[in-house]
Write a structure and sequence with these properties.
globular; binds adenosine monophosphate; HIT family, subunit A; 24% helix; 3 helices; single chain; alpha+beta
């Protein structure tokens, strides 16, 4: 997908409105526009990748960075001690609706298992 037609690329570039709560040279984190929990943050790499299906061996440091950010941001927004869930939806069966890799960070309520 071309960068200018990808909403998360546009958010990362500052070209679309969002509530960014963290950013660095590799990734941005912003609140989900339709939150599924009291705290719902999306963590996305600046570089476009459609989904986890496109991750290559060379992306391992980036993927690790995204997970580490989940922990850091959970701490920042005060859900680390009570707990949180991290989710990466992939493809149609996975329920992915935005075709730019992102990690959901959800907290502030008790999660159920298994997921729907
Ligand atoms: P997924 O279904 O896993 O692809 O997750 C996509 C998420 O992006 C959904 O939870 C949407 O509510 C959220 N979303 C879509 N557009 C925006 C946007 N412009 N700003 C913030 N969150 C968005």
């Amino acid at each position: 997908m071309a960068e200018n037609s990808c909403i998360f690329c546009r958010i990362a570039a500052g070209d679309a409105p969002s509530n960014i709560i963290y950013k660095d040279e590799l990734a941005v984190a912003f609140t989900d526009v339709d939150p599924k929990a009291p705290s719902h943050v999306l963590i996305a790499p600046r570089e476009h990748m459609d989904s986890l299906n496109d991750a290559a061996r060379g992306d391992e440091p980036l993927l690790g960075h995204l997970l580490r950010l989940a922990s850091k941001i959970a701490n920042q927004i005060g859900i680390a001690e009570t707990g949180f869930r991290t989710v990466v939806n992939t493809g149609e069966d996975g329920g992915q609706s935005v075709q730019h890799l992102h990690l959901h960070l959800l907290g502030g309520r008790k999660m159920t298992w298994p997921p729907g």
